[in-house]
Design a protein that fits this description.
Elements: H1 7-12, H2 16-25, H3 29-48, H4 53-72, H5 81-95, H6 101-128
Helix pairs in contact: 2-3, 2-5, 3-6, 4-5, 4-6
């Protein structure tokens, strides 16, 4: 049986950075967690700091093109101090295992998924209005 975390816990108490480090280094369950509940938690955390899907999608493309090092060198990966700190934490956690093309592509894919989740929630809220 799988433990299902409530949205409130995913929004505030989930350690996305730990899930990133583990999920990018270890295939199997840690990878599934990364692309499941960790992506959902990250999307909630990003939305709470007013990070939209477009900046995360752009950052995903940037990581694909330049890797972790280039993304970490960005003076402001997203707009806003707190938002930038959140995203920099994700970048540092993802890069903790060192430069590796496969992990960089996986991280870029994960960022794109987080952006998609934000987009989907926005659309669902608009339909409900």
């Amino acid at each position: 049986m799988t433990n299902v975390l409530p949205d409130a816990e995913l929004m505030t108490g989930y350690d996305v950075e730990a899930a990133l480090t583990r999920g990018l280094l270890i295939d199997g369950t840690p990878r599934r967690v990364l692309f499941g509940e960790a992506a959902i938690a990250a999307s909630y955390q990003a939305e709470a700091l007013h990070i939209g899907p477009y900046p995360l999608g752009f950052l995903a493309q940037y990581v694909r093109a330049g890797g972790f090092a280039a993304a970490l060198d960005l003076p402001e990966p997203v707009i806003g101090r707190e938002a930038g700190e959140l995203v920099r934490g994700w970048l540092r956690a993802a890069a903790a295992g060192g430069a590796d093309l496969r992990r960089e592509v996986l991280f870029a894919r994960w960022l794109a998924e987080v952006a998609l989740l934000i987009s989907m929630r926005r659309e669902a809220r608009q339909e409900g209005d």
